[in-house]
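As practice, study what follows.
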Amino acid sequence: MHAFKGCFCSAKSKRQAYDDRIKLASETPFTVNEIEALYDLFKKLSGSITNDGLIHKEEFLLALFRDSKKNNLFADRVFDLFDEKQNGVIEFGEFVRSLSIFHPSYPQAEKVTFAFRLYDLRGTGYIERVEVKEMVLAVLNESDVTLSDDDIESIVDKTMAQADTKGDGKIDLEEWKEFVAKNPTLLKNMTLPYLKELTLQFPSFVLHTEVPD
């Protein structure tokens, strides 16, 4: 009897997992088979440090930001955006829904909004000058380019002048949408082409940031 109950619970659990993946497929550009591939990746990430079926920040940063010196500026912000419940860990559903934003078929308008939230490092609802400067510094660091303080300030001033059309010293979502429309390369790294053809050998990826010249 106990053995039968165990088999029944196991079958029920597998059915629930399959139903959950069908639901995720209906909410994202991924197929059920692709979600199975993502689950394989998720298990590897979630078990790299703590084997509890969840992705902790250390595991997330280790996998997605291997060169922490170059990416630590945005690492915490990306984790926060993936962690929809804000409970300090990433569950499988959160992982799939967040990753789907980088799918080539994901609506461009949603990518624009996500990018805004990413660059709004402090979550204030605006991208302020200090955050623009941090983005510039991050890009320079990634490119191993060294500029004088005056040159950096000039780039920041130019970016703010172009994006802050209301002249209030900060970039809101409306201004951001207009700015991105004129500078589409800002969304270059919001699309990962290989997400369109997932396999169980899922490639690792790194998020970079860019600002206009």
Q: What stands out?
A: The longest helix spans residues 2-27. The longest strand covers residues 55-56. The CA atoms of residues 164 and 171 lie 5 Å apart.
